[in-house]
TrEMBL record:
This is Putative clathrin assembly protein. Residues 177-204 are annotated as: Disordered. Keywords: Cytoplasmic vesicle, Golgi apparatus. Gene3D superfamilies: 1.25.40.90, ANTH domain. GO terms for molecular function: 1-phosphatidylinositol binding; clathrin heavy chain binding; phosphatidylinositol-4,5-bisphosphate binding; SNARE binding. The keyword Lipid metabolism does not apply.
Amino acid sequence: MKVFKGKIWAAIGSLMDHAGAASTTAKSSSSAAAVPDRALLTDIEAAIERCTGSSGGGGNDDDRHVHEILFLVSNARGAITFLSRRITARLEAARAPAAALRSLLLVHRLLRAGDRYFEQDFRSLWASRELRVDAPRCSCSPLAAGVGYASGACAFVHGYSAYLEGRMQWVINQAGNLEPARKPPPPPPDHDAGKPMPSSSSDDAGAETLLFKLAMCQRLLDLAIQLLPDNNTSASTAARSAFGIVLRESFKVYDAFAEGIDVMLLLSKSLAGQSKPSRATAHEILKKACVQTLELKEFYHKCKRSSANSKSIEYPLVRVVTPAQAVVMEMELELVPIPEEDGCQEEVEAKPQAEAIDGGGSPFAHKMETTISTVWVGFDDEDQKLITAPDAGDP
């Protein structure tokens, strides 16, 4: 019996030893996975070079190189941080506009080709300044191609950098469309977690989200409109590729803007009850839409004339908002000036009478009181004679 018990304890000890060794191996492997090995980092660096080197930027092999980078980054958790830092370093070191443009184009392609988790991590690194797209320091000195090309290419690079700064604040939703990235608004402070949110609060949150979306659409469309390359810059393969991506993204942004304007009219009651800053924002959006929609229509018209592949691109039909239409929309949205605090009491007092007059009921539905004041007037003897004297025209 003693021998049998000894064998049992020996077996248990052996199992514990194996479990401890397995846990140690798992910990070491997880720590090794958190820090990419040198060979993987070397492969990522080589792939970046193929995309941003003199032979890259807008070529047919760019998509293959981009997917290669995404595959390498997915094999290690910390590799995306290394990728962001290497792209930023290349962008800061670039002195020629073409080199800076190729680095920016790689960022844009990765942002579009990555999955939802990669996009989220990429945007987080941009927010923490690990990835910087506002770092081009390219010189605008005359190049071999001429002064016009140098100045035009440098202006395009800086405009494209500004567009990417705005583009980083957008995400691709499940339907494949662009939408602004924004956290949902917090519930009111006096709202109980166990009770449903009042309909008025949800309507206010929906109206604020809609106004935010429309304002973001207008900002990104402004950046896209200013990015139309000139004849010299359009000769660059990277510039044509970058502008083609921006142009197609502007189509989706405008579709979101046009849809938001229609939703704004449907939510007219909610917007009419918004605060003064929100109503002022709605007024500014409509005011800006009068100018921007006309500029956007002209921008697409220029793109059609300058692009050789314009026949294969389906441009959206831009609805130009005129000032008269904006006034009508403001009237439908009831975007009237909000009274000041001093006049609030007068407005409350005058409301019952206004409802009685403007409403469909009888104007005499409310009881009206009339106060007659008595005024005593004194007369002297001459006035009394004039009053009692018969008129000359009397019989």
